[in-house]
Write a structure and sequence with these properties.
This protein is mostly helical. Helix content is 76%, strand content 0%. It has one domain. It has helices at residues 5-24, 27-47, 54-63, 65-84, 87-91, 98-127, 136-157, 164-181, 193-200, 203-216, 222-245. Helix 3 (54-63) packs across helix 10 (203-216) and helix 7 (136-157) packs parallel to helix 11 (222-245). It is globular and about 55 Å long. The chain starts with a helix and ends in a 6-residue tail after the last helix.
């Protein structure tokens, strides 16, 4: 069945309103999304308190990682819960596409992602003293994109889980290899050829590079734009793949 463009937009925003309504009654999840990255940044600043210059180096890199991980965990569990409860089955019986449904999730969680990015940016720059050579609004944009990337990864991987516990189990398999290869410990250009190739195919690499460039390079450079474009491309690719792999119910 062909769905007119206007109805597609209404479907996306109706889904977003429904998800935001659910989140309004789940203050624990909202607190997790908004507060956990800030708590981790404070803890990181505290850890590096006695090591001059360490927070200035590691803070911007991890600034892009924390929102990604938090949103990945929330999205994967929330989507699987709706499939287990039969909500997805009922929704997909309506004249809507799977991609429209996922876009509704992106709009809803995108509101929280922007709020999360704003709070974390204000805390990091205004309170914790993280220095940013580039425009602060770019740091906010990068953090929001990283959170949405985590959301898209969570929506994609949730299709392969049968239970909420299994969805959580996928987090180490999806996140830890990226965490090790994204440049936090060794710059990708200094890695072995095979590892460098793997690092170049992982979205977290570009998320870390983008926030690092914003912290160290004044202005908007072509390399920064390339990193942000790569994060956006991975985000869109995960959403499209998620639309193909989304299942109505858990067998």
């Amino acid at each position: 069945m062909t769905v007119p463009a206007g109805r597609e937009a209404r479907t996306v925003f109706a889904t977003a309103r429904r998800v935001l309504g659910q989140l309004a009654h789940d203050l624990g999840t909202v607190a997790l999304i908004l507060a956990l990255p800030c708590v981790l940044l404070i803890l990181l600043r505290w850890v590096f308190h006695g090591v001059p210059g360490s927070f200035a180096r590691a803070g911007p890199q991890l600034f892009g990682v924390f929102p990604l991980i938090v949103m990945y965990l929330v999205a994967s569990v929330a989507t699987l819960r709706e499939r287990v409860n039969g909500t997805l089955d009922r929704l997909l019986c309506l004249p809507m596409r799977r991609l429209d449904l996922l876009l509704g999730y992106v709009v809803a969680f995108g509101v929280l992602a922007v709020a999360q990015a704003g709070i974390a940016t204000g805390l990091a720059v205004g309170v914790l003293g993280m220095r940013v050579a580039g425009p602060v609004w770019l740091l906010l944009l990068a953090a929001a994109l990283d959170a949405l990337l985590g959301l898209a990864l969570g929506l994609l991987t949730s299709a392969f889980a049968r239970t909420e516990f299994q969805a959580v189990q996928y987090l180490p398999a999806v996140i830890l290899p990226q965490f090790l290869l994204c440049g936090l410990f060794v710059p990708p250009e200094a890695m072995d050829g095979t590892l460098r190739l793997l690092a170049d195919t992982m979205p977290m690499t570009y998320a870390v590079q983008a926030t690092s460039r914003i912290a160290t390079e004044p202005g908007i450079t072509s390399a920064l734009l390339a990193d942000l474009a790569a994060v956006t491309a991975f985000l869109l690719a995960c959403l499209i793949l998620g639309a193909f792999t989304l299942r109505r119910r858990t067998p």
